[in-house]
Design a protein that fits this description.
The protein is of the alpha+beta class. It is built from 11 helices and 12 strands. It binds flavin-adenine dinucleotide.
Length: 287
Amino acid sequence: MSLYPAFARPRDLGQAAEIMGSLSTGAMIIAGGQELMPSVNYGALMPEVYIDVGQIAALKGISEEAGAIQIGSFTVHRDVQNNDLIQSKLPLLSYAAAQIGGGMQVHNRGTIGGNIVAMHPLYDILPSLLALGAEVDVLSDVGEVRVALADLMKDARHGLGSESLLVRVHLKPMMPGAGWSYEKLKITAGGYGSANAAAIVTLDSSKITSLRVVVGAVSALPVDMSDTLSDCCGQAWSAHLAEEVEARSSAEIKEPLSDHQGDGEWRRAMAGVMARGAIEAAIKKAG
Ligand SMILES: Cc1cc2nc3c(=O)[nH]c(=O)nc-3n(C[C@H](O)[C@H](O)[C@H](O)COP(=O)(O)OP(=O)(O)OC[C@H]3O[C@@H](n4cnc5c(N)ncnc54)[C@H](O)[C@@H]3O)c2cc1C
């Protein structure tokens, strides 16, 4: 191993696939470096080769095609927050991106792709993307595949970060009239969440017709409560239903996180509180 890391800078997706296929272990993709470089600085990671994907035009930009919104993986958090298309058709995602801490540097340099691939339990973007039913395109030396983000998370990262590249995110626009909410419980302003929840609700008069709710920062990966809570559909929100939602959401957290921000029992309790709060807030905005 050389004393200094090497640096590869593919110009397009073809070159990126070729490079990823030819490099041995020890190579790492770098986007904004807001996740990777702190790990390198702390000595937790020592890439032998950095693959800088910042020159690849296909990874940049936000567009609408055939009724779906596509976000290039190299799109920075600030652009996700401020983009007109996202603000009007995916306001939940714009709002969640604005809740990321770390200040201007992280917002201007950190990318949606890096945030997804890091799959960090305390980060803000995954719960909203899961609630929105996101799909992603993943490129490796054998080609490009589209997978549901929920499936990608079950599958040991698909070699992302070294052998494969997250190219873009696909999202269907939120239904007109849908209520949404992203709630983040944090100890310090601008800090990581100790629990969070994203919810999307549609109503017919006062009855719930569809419900998506994903709770994050309480276990290693966000937990999608939508199936568990699907019997809320057809019911009007009430104090009784709210209590049930809270209890059932807490019970879904089998292996809670425990850290300086809160122990496992507290995390489990907060999962219920956040799910309930996010649904309540989304209902207020619906219609
Ligand atoms: C001080 C600070 C505070 C922060 N606070 C928050 C917060 O409150 N909420 C929050 O959500 N996040 C927070 N973050 C994290 C930040 O949002 C993420 O680190 C950032 O989004 C990562 O994006 P990046 O482009 O910098 O990724 P990088 O650091 O470049 O890469 C991160 C990982 O993803 C891989 N990778 C990157 N892009 C791709 C790709 N296209 N395909 C495959 N693999 C890829 C890399 O190999 C690496 O493993 C904070 C970060 C800092 C430094």
